[in-house]
Inverse folding.
């Protein structure tokens, strides 16, 4: 398990409007593509520098492919990253402002302190 890789996925997808739409329309395909082509790119290094060992667990891959932010929270994904990305993905599907954010809070309300560790 790599909380770093989960958070890297959420961060990089959330920062690119085209990737947000791609992830909304084809989550499973986007996760597979991202893991194969982006996951091991070393951010901030010279072009072409890559790691070779990072990959999602089956549980992480399933949570990402299923847009399952509750499971992602339990796996240690940073709640700010899940919230901002899933707002971008789904807020448009709700009739009133903040409706998605309220649903997000309700779905995570079963958690109590201490929350899952988000340290990477």
């Amino acid at each position: 398990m790599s909380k770093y890789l989960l958070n890297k996925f959420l961060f990089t997808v959330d920062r690119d409007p085209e990737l947000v739409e791609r992830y909304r329309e084809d989550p499973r395909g986007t996760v597979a593509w991202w893991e194969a082509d982006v996951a091991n790119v070393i951010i901030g290094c010279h072009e072409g520098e890559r790691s070779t060992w990072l990959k999602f667990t089956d549980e992480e891959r399933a949570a990402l492919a299923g847009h399952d932010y509750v499971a992602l929270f339990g796996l240690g994904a940073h709640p700010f990253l899940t919230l901002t990305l899933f707002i971008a993905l789904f807020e448009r599907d709700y009739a009133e402002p903040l409706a998605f954010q309220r649903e997000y809070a309700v779905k995570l309300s079963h958690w109590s302190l201490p929350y899952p560790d988000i340290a990477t």
Q: What stands out?
A: The mean pLDDT is 89. The radius of gyration is 15 Å. The chain has seven helices and no strands.
